Amino acid sequence: MVRAVRWFLLFCVLAVAVIELKARFDRRPQDLPWTALRLDDPVGRFTAGKIAALGEAPAQCRALLAAAGTRDRAAPPRRPAPTCGYDDGMILAGGNARQGGFAPAGLVTSCPVATALLLWDERVVQPAARRHFGTSVTAFSHAGSFSCRRLYGRASGAWSEHATADAVDILGFRLTDGRTVSVLRDWPGSGQDAAFLRDARDGACRLFTTVLSPDYNAAHRDHLHLDTAYRGPGGWRACR
Q1: Whole-angstrom distance between the N-terminal and C-terminal Cα of the chain?
Q2: What positions does the domain Extensin-like C-terminal occupy (predicted)?
Q3: What sign has the CA pseudo-torsion 86, 91, 94, 97?
Q4: CB 142 within 8 A of CB 102
Q5: Which of 16, 41, 110, 150 has the fewest other C-beta atoms within 10 Å?
Q6: What is the pLDDT of residues 173-206, one digit of tens each?
Q7: CA distance 170 to 34
Q8: For residue 134, what is the DSSP state?
């Protein structure tokens, strides 16, 4: 009889724990790998992997961007070589009420990169700009996305995520008051510009699967490399 009571109490404890755990995950679906990505959810543990997975679902990806109110539009497919190109390119408009613009204009990235940039701008960059400068970012200075090349421009070896427009290089930011923040110029400092850049880098690590900054190596001394390489829903991420 005593043993039966103990088993019953153990069952009750486990049942309560399961119910509490389910309630927690119901409140935070972004922390489960199998739930659908919703752009109005808080950023969660699996958000970056879900964004990267949109590379296999371009229609879903574009629908998410349209529902978010962006003015981004589909780019024509581009396949200059069998190992390079994209079918899910987006021409990034930016510059609306929800986003900063891009300089130079006409930036084309894969749809997952466009999605990650939208959330990075809204959830990370703009709050950081208000926190450090009391103003907003009006433009992202960039060095482009698509480039049909291997890693570091080598003649052989693995292909860069730029080869499929699944990466973008951010050089700096222009603020509403006309000031600029440059990765090359301001990263080595210790003031608010450097602090802002590090906040932007750290926040990007929750949305992109690879984030490389000047802390990584000299090849990235002048930009933040952001990409959406897909390594599975719970795959590893690089943040340097």
Answers
A1: 59
A2: 60-240
A3: negative
A4: yes
A5: 16
A6: 999 999 999 999 999 999 999 999 999 999 999 9
A7: 31
A8: S
* Model pLDDT for residues 11-52, shown as the tens digit of each residue: 544 543 444 444 445 556 778 988 999 999 999 999 999 999
Structure tokens at 235: 């795959």
State the pairing for strand pair 101-103/137-142. parallel
Q: Which two tokens stand for residue 184?
A: 């090359």
Helices (H), 68-213: 111-120, 126-133, 183-186, 192-204
Q: Where are the domains of the chain?
A: 1-31, 35-239
Cα 31 from chain centre: 16
The reported pTM is: 0.88
The dihedrals phi and psi of 166, each to the nearest 5 degrees, come to -90, 20
Helix, coil or strand: residue 101? strand
Q: Which residues contact 18 (CB under 8 A, 6 or more apart)?
A: none
Count, residues in the chain: 240
Crossing angle of helices 58-67 and 111-120, in 10° steps, is: 30
Which of 162, 154, 171, 174 lies closest to 210, judged by CA? 162
